[in-house]
Design a protein that fits this description.
Length: 120
């Protein structure tokens, strides 16, 4: 289960921040870790991450930690490639898949006598 854990950590300097980051990143199943030194907040996002394990890791650094929230994390939308974006903006229907961009091509009628295409 993908979840977001917010922990309040007593941090005052950059060394505190670094120590907390190093200790927490050793846990398995973590996708993202961020620390806000001003708010004294640690945010851990991952699959099957135990909030108690996160707090125990932080406490091993000598810091006080308190769980604020634990809940499901919204997975970010996959980025749209520039190719897909230009196709989508020029065509009113979805023409791009998650894996391969798909281009919609309309054949132009060709004038075979002159050898060129007629642009309408």
């Amino acid at each position: 289960m993908h979840q977001k854990i917010e922990v309040e950590v007593n941090m005052h300097c950059e060394k505190c921040r670094t120590d907390v980051l190093k200790s927490v990143t050793k846990l398995s199943g973590i996708d993202q870790v961020s620390v806000d030194l001003e708010k004294q907040m640690l945010v851990v996002v991952g699959d099957d991450v135990d909030p108690v394990s996160v707090v125990e890791r932080v406490k091993k650094t000598g810091k006080r930690a308190k769980i604020i929230t634990v809940g499901p994390s919204k997975k970010p939308d996959p980025p749209v490639s520039p190719i897909c974006e230009s196709i989508i903006s020029g065509y009113p229907y979805p023409v791009c898949t998650d894996v391969y961009p798909v281009a919609v091509v309309y054949p132009q009628p060709c004038d075979y006598e002159t050898g060129g295409c007629v642009i309408q």
